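Collaborator request log, item 7. Partner lab (contact: R.S.) asked for a structural prediction of Outer membrane lipoprotein-sorting protein to inform their binding assays.
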Amino acid sequence: MSVLTSRPVVRWLVPVAAVVTVIGGGAALGRFAAEAEPSLPPRSAAQLLVDLQTARFEGLSGTVVQRADLGLPPIAGLLADDGPASLLTGSHTLRVWHSGPKQQRIALVDTLGQRDFIRDGRDVWLWNSRTNTATHRVLADDEDVAVPPGVPATPQDAAAQALAAIDPTTEVSVGRAATVAGRDAYELVLAPRDAASLVHQVRIAIDATEHLPLRFEVFAEGGDRPAFEVAFTQIDYARPDPDQFTFNPPPGVQITEKKGSWDHPESRDDEEQPDLRAVGTGWTTVLVAKVGDVGSAAAAEDVPDLDLLAGQLPAVQGDWGSGRLFRSNLVTALLTDDGRLIVGAVSPERLYEVARG
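Returned to partner:
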């Protein structure tokens, strides 16, 4: 079966693209409306890192706007339009509520409806208003779970993933002060030391008082505007009402009960699981997923967008083999004819090197 005719394979482009999104993006976007630069006491990069890692809060709620344009029109058409992949392009608005590690809610609101992730103690709900369907899982006593994997839903999610990558390959500095969602903020700047990375900078605006990330931006080499950004436009640090974390099924909702732990294979959809691995370290890490045989040029009749992808991506070949190449100013992806998807914020030559190995 061709990878270009398999819906289960398409599903696994989502987490791969999501990881790349954290460290890269596509065409430049306009920044959120700028506000006057506040006057704040000097603070070093080391102090800001400590602030981030030691910040504590009882709860918060707010509105988050995410903007992204990865330059992926053909690929975006492949991806599910009701999951994390929908956040890979355009502008999106999310409402978030947080009341400790056992109570969280994220609501993605768009023109087609609303999708909610709700956790209340051991109960976890995923709800889609457009299809009026919900999935319910009861966590084990000692089990924990983060929000659904995918594109970061808040600046905190994005910052956590970026900070986890800090090592000797990263230069850390302090940028200009800013006002975000009406809050004064410091700016922490992360820049790759490795010239092979296509990322220029990651900038994190940190609340000057509460020390939480309020805005997260990614810039490409040569770009003076962010390629990807997610920011609070409104935030309230009061603990939300407990009712916000109670799922009240609407009339006619179809509920699916999931068994087993969150990460147990039996608790997931019965779609093909990918063989996913990371090659390299730091900013030039490349993800490799085994997605099947791509030798067939035929496309399924019910998924013409897959045929569109095969026709639009240029063919490439070398001593590593042959396949199709996608590239933007930050994301490069190689779909090989022997069934591998290789993605990174690096040059095509780096992908060829990995394919060769």
